[in-house]
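Side project, low priority. Logging it here so it doesn't get lost.
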Amino acid sequence: MVQLLLNFDPSLKLMLIGPIAIALAAWALRLACSFSSITPPPFLQAVLSMVAIIAAQLVVRVYLELNQVPPGLGRVVIAPLITSAAMIGICVPTGPMAAISVAIFHAGICFLLFMGLAAVGDTLITPLFG
C-alpha cells in the first residue's frame, strides 16, 4: 500500500491531499480566531483566506529566493509570520496586533495538527502496510 502511494504522480497527490489540507488549515484559522477573542469568519471565508495566505506565502518565498536572502530566522520565521499576519488582517477584519496573535495561534495549531497526523501515520500506517 505504501509503495502504491509512493508511486503516485506528485501533482495527483497534491490534487487529492491539497483540498483536505486547506480545509484543515481553515478550521485551524477559525479556532485561532476563537482563541484570540476575534469573531471567527464563516468556513468559506476561512477557506478563501487560507488560499490567499498560501498565495502570499508563495510570492514571499519566491521573492526571498530570487534575491538570495541567506537562510536564517528572518527568512524562515519572521517573513512568513508577517506575511500571514498581513493577510489575516486583510481577510479577517481585525487590527494588526490581533492579526499577529491569530497568526501565532494558527501556526501553533497547524504544527500540532501536523505532528499529530505524523505520529498517527508512524504508529498505525507504517506497521500495517510497511
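Brief comment: The two ends are 8 Å apart (CA to CA).
Revisit when time allows.
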